Amino acid sequence: MHTAHWTGYENRRSRMIERLAQMGIGQPVLQAMAGVPRHLFVEEALRTRAYDEMSLPLGLGQTISQPYTVAKMTELLWGKTPQSMRRVLEIGTGCGYQTAVLVKLFGEVYSMERIAALLDKARAHLRAVKLVRARLVHGDGHLGLPECAPFDGIIMTAAATHIPEALLDQLVVGGRMILPIGTQEQHLWMIDKHASGIEKTQLDPVRFVPLLPGAI
Ligand code: SAH
Fold first, then answer.
1. From the CA atom positions of the chain, what is the Rg in Å?
2. What is the pTM of this model?
3. What three-state secondary structure class fits 210?
4. 173 has which bridge partners?
5. Contact assessment for residue 162 and residue 139, using Cβ atoms and an 8 Å cutoff
6. Cβ contact 50:39 at 8 Å
7. Active-site residue 65, yes or no?
8. How many distinct helices (H) and strands (E) make up the chain?
9. Confidence class of residue 1 from pLDDT cuts 50, 70 and 90?
10. Among 28, 58, 121, which Cα is nearest to 50's?
């Protein structure tokens, strides 16, 4: 019976991967997501919906993004010369799901979360799925992690009103940042840092919880 239960989640995960493939996500990210049991990152009562194409509440007013958004943002980060994408910083750890996907793909992963109680949960989730390589930091992501910079890539999973200057400073030349910007209306933005300056590309409309100041 335990086996049948587990198989149910495996089937749901395979269907999610097939759906993401149809939506245009490529192999590296599909493989990474196939290796992360997403249902173990959400509350028990929501587990059967974990692989559906929807965002889910993760407690304390925060949400885990829908699978396609996680896939797309990860792919945009990875797409830029993967071999150079060694050290990445995530802002907004939440339940740790996006962090787990990053650990599957990148050499060195740092993730910052402003709510200590969520960071504890994320740590437990990552331990449960044996993806403990990420360094989780309690703090305000607006400031980034200057002591661990520079980063080859930065991914933010909460919506900012503007691009935090500190994060741009902590990105290598040739690096890329993916983040949602806006309040009521939000778009995903891709920020490429070149020697000649910053290139900003507006992408799809999205819906994220706000990036808030301070750590609690
Ligand atoms: N990537 C997450 C999604 C989390 S939702 C996942 O896979 O579950 C966004 C998260 O950003 C929330 O947990 C919220 O507390 C956090 N957040 C908001 N403002 C922040 C800030 N200034 N610094 C760090 N984290 C922040």
1. 16
2. 0.95
3. strand
4. none
5. no
6. yes
7. yes
8. 6, 9
9. very low
10. 58
Residues with CB under 6 A from ligand 1: 58, 62-65, 91-92, 94-95, 97-98, 112-115, 118, 140-142, 157-158, 209, 211-212
Cβ burial of 33 (10 Å; 0-12, 13-18, 19+) is: buried
The number of the ligand 1 atom at minimal distance from the alpha carbon of 142 is: 22
What amino acid occupies position 41?
Answer: F
Tokens of 91: 């802002």
The pLDDT tens digits of the residues spanning 62-117 come to 999 999 999 999 999 998 666 666 899 999 999 999 999 999 999 999 999 999 99
The answer to whether residue 163 scores a pLDDT higher than 50 is: yes
Eight-state DSSP code of residue 45: G
Residue 92 CA to ligand 1 center (angstroms) comes to: 3
Of 69, 89, 157, which is best to mutate to test ligand 1, by the most ligand atoms within 8 angstroms of its C-beta? 157
Two tokens, residue 171: 């990105």
Find the Cα–Cα–Cα–Cα dihedral 188, 126, 153, 32, rounded to 10°.
-80
**d(CA 96, ligand 1 centre) in Å:** 10
